[in-house]
Structure prediction request, 301 residues.
Amino acid sequence: MKANLKYKSSVFSYLFSEPDILRELYCALKGVKLPDDTPVIINTLEDVIFMDRINDVSFEIDGKLVVLIEHQATINPNVALRLLMYIARVYEKIIKGRNIYSTKKILIPQPEFFVLYNGADPYPDEETLKLSDMFSSIEDLGLDKTSPALELQVRVLNINEGKNEAIAKKCTVLAQYRAFVGKVREFEKSGYNRQESVKKAVVFCRNNDILKELLEEHASEVLNMLTTEWNWDDAKQVWFEDGFEEGIEKGIEKGIEKGIEKGIEIGEEKGTEKGMLKAIELFEQGLSVEEIKQRLKQINN
Prediction:
């Protein structure tokens, strides 16, 4: 691994930052075999929108395929729309310098979209999320439902241990990554806090040849990245739960219509990076979810 950890937002992004590993991952996800010399060009977008990277992993295969992979601990029902915006930016990057108004047709790589889920909540081995599922109904306008003029399909794959074993067997790095995450969760269930669990998982995996090279050379960076990444996910969940609960309370007090307006107002007020960072800070201090909700309410009142 030659990539610089400082420029990776997560352990997953770091692990899958080399062409050979991405080729192996794609072959495992698709159940295909590509020649070892098939060129892979990484074109992951590094810009930042709001509170997250634009996407976790994006790469071209021989100029004919462009693959976007998101790694999530919580399934976002809007991920198809997010990936639509991402792929537009990726295509913009791919065709840079070429004239799209030319009379000559421009050939672009065919897109494929994946979400790799490793959250703690139960989830099926595989599910497909579609952009069309988000479209408003046109039947209220007296129009018949037709095939959408625009579609985007995302394969959501559960990569937790015990799920999609065939994929894990074909990609060593993915198998070891999920084994590491599984070991962290095992220690958490034994009563250790998040940071202690990660530390113990690092020692266990290093001693059992699981991500050994990464953990021997970058153990402290892995600890920091995982703690930040997972606390960030937890903080976002608290933020949404907290805002939802307040919206309900206000809705009961002032009626549904006013409650919705208040919910939007609260969402805009809390939807700042400063508020999210505060939630993460409270997580790192060891406060429970309920304690953080109460603290955030005090801050916003």
